Amino acid sequence: MAFASDIFGELLDASAVIAEDRLSVAEYLAGEDVVYQNLPSLQDLEALDPDGYDDPADWLAAQVPLWFGESLEAWLPEQTEAADGDAGLAGVGADVPAERPADPAGTQ
């Protein structure tokens, strides 16, 4: 209940009832063109695992073609060009933590 109290900014006790309304995918995307529908395959499992990369930017660069069918450079050319004009990731993914936070539920 402490977590819910933090989220809602209200003191909640065990008798509290928290409800939510969710939009369906169709409602959320109403009026929008769905352009990308790629999903990685089972053969991509190794490439999906961030633990297989030394650098978060390398992991990010590997994800873009799996999900969107184009390279990171094609998606973000202005961010992937280094200051001297050489291709590079120039800070893309720098905010991605080097290690994933511990899973309190123990499901990972």
Write the layout of secondary structure elements.
Blueprint: H1 2-8, H2 25-28, H3 45-48, H4 56-68, H5 72-75, H6 77-80
What can you see in these coordinates?
With 108 residues, this protein is mostly helical. Helices cover 33% and strands 0% of the residues. The protein is built from six helices and no strands. The chain has helices at residues 2-8, 25-28, 45-48, 56-68, 72-75, 77-80. The two termini are 24 Å apart. The model has no long low-confidence stretch (mean pLDDT 79).
Low-confidence stretches: none
Overall shape: it is: extended
Question: Count of DSSP E strands?
Answer: 0
What Rg is obtained from the alpha carbons, in whole angstroms?
Answer: 20 Å
Distinct helical segment count: 6
Q: What is the string of SSEs from the N terminus onward? A: HHHHHH
Largest β-sheet summary: none
> Helix/strand/pairing class, anyone?
mainly alpha
Characteristic terms for this protein:
33% helix
Summarize the structure.
This protein is mainly alpha-helical. The chain has six helices and no strands.
